[in-house]
Amino acid sequence: MYMNRIFGILTLIGLTGCVTNSMERGNWFNEYGTLEAGTPIQMQYGSPDMQPGTPSDNLLGAPVHRMAVLLPLTGSAAQTGREIQTSIETSILQNAPRNLSVAFYDTATNLPETINNILSDNPEVIIGPVFANDVRELRNAKPEELPVLSFTSDATAVGNGVMTMALMPTNSIETIVKEMYSDGVKSFIILAPDTQSGKLMAGTASNAAEIYNVPVSGIFYYTEKDSDSIKNVGMKASMNAARTAANTRAREILSDILTSERLTALEKSSLTLQLERLSKMETLGKLPYNGILFLGSGDDTESLASFLRYYGVTAREAKFYGTALWEGSDIVNDFTMIGAKYAVLPDRTPEFINLYERVSGNVPGRLAGFGYDAANMAMGMIYSPKTDAAYLLDPSGYAGVEGLYRLKPTGENERALQVVQLSGNGVVQVVKNAATNFLTPIYNIEQRKIRPANSMELETPGVNPNDYISIPERLQTKYKSKTYGSHMTYSTTTDMPQETQSVIILPEDDSDEIVTSPDFQPVALESINRTYIDSVEIEE
Fold first, then answer.
1. Number of H helices and number of E strands within the chain?
2. How far is CA 147 from CA 41, 124, 136, 393, 401, in A?
């Protein structure tokens, strides 16, 4: 088992002081909610709020305070663990009194035994692990009173004294749905990976849609990194079949009238112009939504957006929105995504970035910032006169290197996010700053209460070609068309049955075609040649 001990800034040899712990400190829900939110506690380097300990804590013989850190330090995830370890060591070397003992443990080596070793050492707080299954194992083994600051984003893995520093998916999704409401989006569709987390994110988006009164018109799932699956979703979400059929039928009606009816010169000119315009288009009809929420990675989003544009969904018809999953992807350089918005953590503080680069020679990732803040919180808790729950769950929250956040007794957290917009040149523009305090509640959704959402066909009245062409009033009854692609879907959650009702509006004479003469020869309808869209080759 890999284990590295740090005794404050200096190694304490032969220290024999008594050991304290927080096992007697109360239940995690007892004190929560009794205080009002105020000014956040500053957790950044150099803040007067982040000076733990008293002068006596630096004297030989002072009581030893123990902190354990549980990270993947070997194996395939070692790089992640080392990044967090570096940030924790940096915080400790800056701020820890001499009587703090910090031990690093490796999750990759016999985890049950490692956890037993940690607990036998009676730590006052544990930082880590990273992965949900490791967090669950620690939660099930430790005393409930022992606080844990983990790095999982899985709400089902926390609780019973296990909290997380990671960004919860609900925060990013609720933030961007709120932005949709601000942008005047009337309804939107959800495009999500066909995974358990993807379905939970879709459930979160559906929940947020109800809160902010922005209806969901459809939910579509695709297989990650699968071009065929992504293409099929793009085709369905764009109503391509119905809108193409509507375009074809509209052109047929105009052609029929031009070749078989007596028309005035003005009528003939109008119908000819309409036919020429439609002949340059592949689809016809409005979409039942004007916003699209992408819940997958930046790479999958780029592919989905390309197919959607190929099938006639342009930025004029639907605005694009995403989540923090876009951060760090090449989507920021895609000029076709200009105007798309997503919710993301604020930029890390320059002081932390410079410090981390000096220590490690590398640019810190988000997990490094979480680790740095976790170490500062752990030290603040150990040396605070408050109980562990009162300190960690302060409703005022903390201002860390990743921005404003606060922990909750359920183990989840709330992090203030900013909304940014893509410019297509690698630079993102902040269009809404992150909140700086919790005086006004930021979020309404608890992730542990979210249920996976089922796929949902588009809620749409369909497309009737007659609504998009202008023909002489005397011919309107004669040249009718059915409505293409109308559907009404009801349930979207797993605990309610999903029903779909198809509504087809037929002509009064039950015929789709209007034939007025055996000699009728319709005008030839040219097809549109489509080969490349946004550097994605489409094979018909």
1. 12, 21
2. 19, 7, 14, 11, 21
